[in-house]
Design goal:
alpha/beta, 32% strand, globular, Nucleotidyltransferase, domain 5
Length: 287
Amino acid sequence: MGSIWELDFYSRPILDENQKKIWEVLVCESPLETRTKIDSLFRFAKYCPSTEVNSLWLRTALEEAISNVGETPRRIRFFRRQMNNMITKACKDLGIPAEPSRRTLLLNQWLQQRMEQVYPQESGYQALTNPSVKLDNPLPQRLPDALEGKQWIFVTLQGMEFAQMHEWEIGFSEAFPLEMAQISPETPIPGVLIFSPRALPIAGWMSGLELAWLKFDDSQGARLLLETGATESWILANIKNSQTLMEAKDFEQAKQKANGVHFIAVQSNPQEESFAGFWLLQEVNLP
């Protein structure tokens, strides 16, 4: 099946001898299930002179990464929209699909660690000179009618229960080890469970969206949003009664206490023991 890689290619807070910013490519393997050993995942880092920032240099760096690990990923995720053209071109030249995604959890942690521990040790380091470009997000979209769930509820699982996730019967899924989020096995993990007779088509559609996270939004009426890709947002449900509104607020509070970790699952009915889809998610602050 092959692995999924996470990629960042951007300038770093380091100046070269000509006072030009040094760029860097970071590549790491996405953890795909709760049993993944983080230390075993592939990582690759390489600095790039500002005079060589182009898709050709990036393609060559990716070829080196592929040579190092001995396999080609089945696809690559990246979160910086402003680098879309260059990253997409380099990956296309290698025959690798590249997808904008906020599901770059290991990459985000690695980049933060390098910002704190690696770049300050480099000559030419310039503190606080590397802000990312913030771009406007489009308005949330309505779900296609055929993909709306018949019913949905807020639910909670203990962190320790995810240790057995690999044994659950699931059609479409993706997860990560909870140790990445630095939460204890006793931490309550909030989630949303969707029921529908068309559970499998809904789960299949969701699996192709690069799921990022769920969030309760009350900026334009109370609603539950599903964030996907680099910018997309879908209205999963409009919240109209006081009891559900209270549950939605509790969901957000529990999510914050779990360091952003939560889940979304799809089943055909409440009596079903298997899942058509189950995704462990984490809301994070991207650079």
